[in-house]
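Problem 12. The chain below contains 491 residues. Write out its predicted structure in token notation.
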Amino acid sequence: MSQNDPGLHIEETQESLGVTQDRLKLISVTRSKHHVHHGSDLNFSKTIMAPYAQDGLWSWLVCASATLSWLAALGFVFSFGIFFPVFMDYFQESREKTAWVGSLAIAIIFFAGHASGALISKFGCRVTALLGAFLCALSLGVSSLAKNILVLYFTYSVLYGLGTSFVFSSSINIISKYFKKRRSLAMGILTCGQGAGVLIMAPVLQMMVDAYGWRTTYRMMAGVVFLICLTAVTYSPNVEGEDTEETSAEKEDEKRGCYIDVSVWKEPKVLVLIVSSTVIMFGHYTPQIHLVRYCEDIGITADAASRLFVYYGLASCAGRLVSGRLCDFKMINTYFVYQIAEIVAGMSILFVTMATSYIHMMVFIVIFGFCDGAYITTLNILAITCTSPDKTALALAWQMQMSSFTTASGPPIVGLVADSMDSYTPAFYMAGAAVLAGAFIPFFLLCRKERSASRDLWTTSVQTAESAGVPDWRKSVVYTIDKKTSIRDAD
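Solution.
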């Protein structure tokens, strides 16, 4: 075949580029087509990329990008405690109305999970994450022009919460696609992004607010958050190991309206988890939002209070890693770790009302931060293991959506009580009591198991006695030796 003949010439450029087997393979496809009218050749060049390997080098780059996205987007929203006293003083509003700004933004992150999932299914993780980055930047830019706190409810709470939800969901989804063997480790690294974000963001934001004011800080952070979240361009959909059948099934479920399916509510484990987390969320985020203002009330400056978020971030990261490792052991019940974390967290919220110095607040925030990290980790583990694999997404969606209501209403109600009583003491008592109440709810599941076990034992006794031909089975004693049931007449 001559050089000018039409045809398809495939040249592998792997050797010429020095690309090894475990790296990206490039295949240069050149199509030569004779142009009839001009008597010349038109050369088309197309590059085909082989799928990225799971758990490979590019996978860890994706993990780093997702973690940075969480650090920027979630770190900012969970550092709202820095802006809480600033907004109160600037807009001359109460604790209740000001708390709605931060709590509503956090709630929408979870409430918009269904919308995020629909976008990911339609356009993929990369587009969804980049759209989220744009919304976050737009939100901060527009919010810097707000004339009153009511405007912030929409420009910041709704818009930033929605953008963060897109970043949040797409990051989790892309990690599950790029990792198989190291998925748990990658998820652990990803979730540390939130704690690390608060650790870094809080003191930096406090310095920026002191130096430039909150409006300029919002404008500057709009650019920072957008640029960091642009790392989502690494979320390539071209990854090996994609289960096309499962993806098709998920899309089919969406067409049927699977998101309004309430069948998982009939499962005791799912019901207990949803109710427990919903009650807990009423008071769980109260310390983070009201922390700086409470410190000012007991004589601690805002600068010193903002540094407490550093200890919170470190403790939260440690709690996530330790609890995740503990739950890897089969002998440890994840529900117990979940309950212990929130019982200690609830008690710490009650006792923080006795704090009178910076050292006291430091001890509180370290304990609470560690428990917060352990709670979030075990909550996610329980959400994906409390039901069958085909209903995991549905259970997680219901858990996030239901808890979003108390996440939004808890801190404002606590602020309302503090305004009415002119003290945070009764308000924190209420928040701590809610956390403790939610932590004890899983014990109902344990009681149900005991009743079920007793009922099963009685039924087995009757059936075994009847099959053995015992005349009066009510007088029979059933006992177990080496997992074998024996029957002996009681007479």
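Discussion. The first helix runs from residue 14 to 17. Students who got a different answer should revisit the alignment rule from Section 12.3.
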